[in-house]
Specification:
Number of domains: 2
Radius of gyration: 35 Å
Number of helices: 6
CATH architecture of the largest domain: 2-Layer Sandwich
Structural class: alpha+beta
Number of strands: 4
Largest sheet: 4 strands, antiparallel
Shape: elongated
Order of helices and strands: HHHEHEEHHE
CATH topology of the largest domain: Alpha-Beta Plaits
Length: 182
């Protein structure tokens, strides 16, 4: 097509005056009998497309806001004030049964007598049974401090003092804790 050709204007987009822009590609623009663009309908179409785009963005915004709200509810459901600790204990293998009995008694007493003790989980390594890992969950750090001052905890510490070969404590923060409903 040569410059100044009368058909040149007919093939241009009425908005940007370029050849094939995005509007030209995505929409079939109406033409009158002479083959020229009908700009009144195009403006109406562009306005409708802008409204549809705005509605899409509004929908995405509402979806994002909903997801953020759900995530914040999930975060508040997992109370961030809870205090969790992992204890990795190495026990004398000759006194393993005595240690497990003392641990079970201490766990049951703590859960029964203390409001601040929320959960205890104790597991034993299959390959090395003398390695015990305990996950402790407390309502707060104050609840943990109160737990360490109770009679049943002091009794447990006195009983297992000669049974424990190694102790490693780690404060942890939960990422996700899930379980199936019963």
């Amino acid at each position: 097509m040569k410059k100044g050709d009368p058909t040149e204007r007919r093939n241009m987009c009425p908005f940007c005056r370029l050849g094939r822009c995005n509007y030209f590609r995505f929409h079939s623009w109406p033409r009158n009998v002479a083959g020229n663009w009908v700009t009144t309908n195009i403006r109406l179409t562009k306005g409708l497309n802008m409204k549809a785009t705005m509605i899409r963005y509004l929908g995405l915004f509402i979806l994002t806001l909903t997801i953020m709200t759900i995530e914040s509810v999930n975060l508040s459901a997992q109370d961030v004030t809870t205090y969790m600790r992992i204890a990795k204990i190495t026990v004398d293998s000759t006194k393993l049964d005595e240690y497990k009995a003392a641990l079970k008694e201490q766990m049951q007493s703590a859960l029964r007598l203390e409001k601040g003790v929320l959960a205890y989980s104790a597991v034993q390594d299959k390959k090395n049974p003398s390695k015990i890992t305990i996950l402790e969950t407390y309502a707060s750090t104050d609840a943990y401090q109160a737990h360490t001052q109770t009679e049943h905890f002091k009794k447990y510490k006195a009983i297992v003092a000669d049974m424990v070969k190694g102790l490693e404590l780690a404060d942890v923060v939960p990422i996700a804790i899930q379980s199936k409903p019963k």
